[in-house]
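Posting this for the archive.
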Amino acid sequence: MKCQGKYERDARAQGFERIAGVDEVGRGALFGPVFAAAVILSPERPIRGLRDSKLLDPERREVLSVRIRERALAWAVAAVDAFEIDRINILQASRLAMRRAIERLNPAPDYLLVDAVTIDLPLSQRALIHGDALSQCIAAASILAKVERDACLREWDLVFPYYGLKNHKGYSTDQHWKALETHGPTPMHRFSFWPVREHSPHALWTGYPRQGDLFVDGDDSAAIVIDDGDLTQPETVALPEAVALPEAVALPKAVALPEAVALDVACAR
């Protein structure tokens, strides 16, 4: 597959002018928010080297993210946190993050190219399987979302240093599993994902909706297999008496959340 501007040119041939590429990052992770970005590239200011963010090394992603912000007509990044993910399920949370990013674009787009899914907005749009490997504007969105989420996870690693978040970015790895087995989950873990629930020493709420197999094939290289089940809202279970939270959950004193965690990031030229 070759990342190119074919789909953007097709949209312009239909009369659309502001084509936004949209993608998410972090659907398969066990920890933290799912991020999304939306980018309207300028036909007059092309960016060489755009491709699926998963195929780029971190240094190259950083370079390209700066160029995207400098040359794009508009860009925005948004996120949905772990609490919302547990409440509405990861697929809907991913779509919500994408919608938030799109709604922050200025100027607003008149056409969307989206990686794999459709967005609940009254805009003409096209969902492309493997869109981040096929479309330049989706690839640009993929790069911005990945860079922002990686920065966020590096900062969360300072708050929860025992889990190796700066290394695996919250995904399911041997290091992450061993940390969960040793310390249990943090409040920022996704308790609707079975590996997190399985390693929780105290089942404070056992009725989380099960996420099901919600990953589009090939979308997220680090996606994990999630247990199936319905997505109905659960009933709250009464807490047992005198349940003490594990020490690993306690936050250190006077921890100021870093700027990289702020999610209202947007820019327009």
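Confidence is low (pLDDT under 50) at residues 213-246, 248-269. Residues 6-155+262-268 form a domain with the Nucleotidyltransferase; domain 5 fold (CATH 3.30.420.10).
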